[in-house]
Amino acid sequence: MYSEKVMDHFLHPRNIGDMENPDGVGEVGNPKCGDIMKIFLRIRENRIEDAKFMTFGCGAAIASSSMATELVKGKTLEEAWEITNKSVAEALEGLPPIKMHCSVLAEEAIHGAINDYRTKQGLEPWIENRPHHALHESTE
């Protein structure tokens, strides 16, 4: 059912834990399945220097969070904004269709953290141009 990459990121998550004084925090949840994902970013000169996560959820949610933090590290804010749920799922070598909402949460948490940072800097938040409401309707 799950790829080896998903299992690896679930059993050995990267970048797990809280971050002291993060520059941006994105927290999202799916009330239908109960997954809650929080991503913390440290940003220096418009580049993501570090990323951490805390997730309450299934194995796919934990793996998606872990992979998302790996994908954003070292990227500019613009590059990180372009990371999609599909790129998270592809980096994990696929997710079952019923678990794709976990990768959506990862994308939305990244966007939330970036916009939290932008707001703290006195900048306008960026607009989500790929709403995923239909994927949130899938349940476990």
How is this structure best described in words?
With 140 residues, the protein is an alpha+beta fold. The protein has one domain: Sufe protein. Chain: A (Alpha-Beta Complex). It contains 6 helices and 3 strands, in the order H-E-E-E-H-H-H-H-H. A 3-stranded antiparallel beta sheet has the order 1-2-3. Strand 2 and strand 3 form a beta hairpin. The chain starts with a helix and ends with a helix.
Strand order of the largest sheet: 1-2-3
Number of helices: 6
Instruction: Please state the structural category.
Output: alpha+beta
Order of helices and strands: HEEEHHHHH
- The fraction of residues in strands falls at 15-25%
Topology:
Blueprint: H1 4-11, E1 24-30, E2 35-44, E3 47-56, H2 59-72, H3 77-81, H4 85-91, H5 100-120, H6 133-136
Antiparallel strand pairs: 1-2, 2-3
Helix pairs in contact: 1-2, 2-5, 4-5
Which terms would index this structure?
6 helices; three-stranded antiparallel β-sheet; 140 residues; alpha+beta; 42% helix; disordered C terminus; Sufe protein. Chain: A
